[in-house]
């Protein structure tokens, strides 16, 4: 059988017992740091004073199947539920949210919709292929310049709204951010209802070829929504008539970008 006598009589090694120390230390590391790879774990072992060489540690690491991709549970935001009551006055609470659609050739675009909860007035519909946090801040600065500063803004936990650039802007301006609970869009019901109307009357009613057409039609519809369209929850009067502002902003007051 070509088996040497020394190999035949060699005692069986209990690797589980021999490597128990390595297993315990690796388990202690990956229990709290699930995204660490082998070399980061090994360097941490060496920094903690363990003298095992990398070949032994890697063998145990693979036997524990730590070299396979692990699914980590995604962390979710914990937010306090905010009461949804229509404020008695303008610029008390604004609401904003995104909608998504596609043009005739398949290119996708987004719209950032901002309303004033006091009279349900649509303040801005910003259209773009991409609307990152920097652009959200720019739109909000334009709105503040035209309408004045709100006391608070109600919004969801999207990355554009939780980015440092946006939260820092709100903090500098003394604007409170009312984040809704994750997965509870009903807590932002005013703008969600506006999004539904905007989708039915604009996005689903037109075929767009250019992003500029989307912005132009959205601006025209926004004026009609604020000044002519009856709003059932406002006693069948448009927002501008229910709680008028001291001035009428024009589209030219905003910087249009496509």
UniProtKB/TrEMBL annotation:
Q: What's any GO biological process attached to this entry?
A: DNA integration
Q: Which Pfam families match?
A: rve_3
Do you know which SUPFAM superfamilies this protein is assigned to? Ribonuclease H-like (SSF53098)
- The lineage's top-level taxon is Bacteria
Q: Which InterPro entries match?
A: Integrase_cat-core (IPR001584), RNaseH-like_sf (IPR012337), RNaseH_sf (IPR036397), Transpos_IS3 (IPR048020)
What are the protein's GO molecular function terms?
A: nucleic acid binding
Integrase catalytic domain: residues covered: 83-246
PANTHER family linked: INTEGRASE CORE DOMAIN PROTEIN, LOW CALCIUM RESPONSE LOCUS PROTEIN T
Under which name does UniProt file this protein?
Answer: Putative transposase
């Amino acid at each position: 059988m070509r088996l040497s006598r020394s190999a035949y009589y060699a005692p069986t090694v209990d690797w589980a017992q021999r490597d128990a120390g390595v297993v315990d230390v690796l388990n202690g590391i990956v229990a709290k740091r699930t995204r660490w790879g082998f070399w980061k774990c090994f360097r941490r072992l060496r920094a903690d004073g363990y003298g095992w060489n990398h070949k032994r540690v890697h063998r145990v690491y693979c036997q524990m199947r730590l070299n396979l991709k692990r699914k980590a549970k995604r962390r979710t935001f914990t937010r306090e539920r905010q009461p949804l009551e229509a404020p008695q006055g303008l610029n008390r609470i604004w609401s904003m949210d995104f909608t998504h659609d596609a043009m005739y050739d398949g290119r996708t675009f987004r719209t950032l919709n901002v309303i004033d909860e006091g009279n349900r007035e649509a303040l801005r519909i910003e259209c773009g292929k991409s609307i990152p946090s920097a652009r959200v801040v720019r739109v909000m600065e334009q709105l503040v310049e035209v309408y004045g500063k709100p006391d608070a803004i109600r919004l969801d936990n999207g990355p554009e709204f939780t980015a440092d650039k946006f939260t820092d802007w709100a903090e500098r301006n003394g604007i409170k951010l009312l984040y809704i609970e994750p997965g509870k869009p009903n807590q932002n019901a005013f703008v969600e209802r506006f999004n539904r109307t905007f989708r039915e009357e604009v996005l689903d009613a037109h075929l767009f070829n250019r992003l500029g057409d989307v912005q132009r039609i959205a601006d025209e519809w926004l004026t009609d929504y604020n000044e002519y369209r009856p709003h059932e929850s406002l006693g069948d009067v448009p927002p501008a008539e229910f709680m008028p502002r001291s001035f009428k902003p024009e589209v030219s007051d905003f910087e249009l970008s496509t």
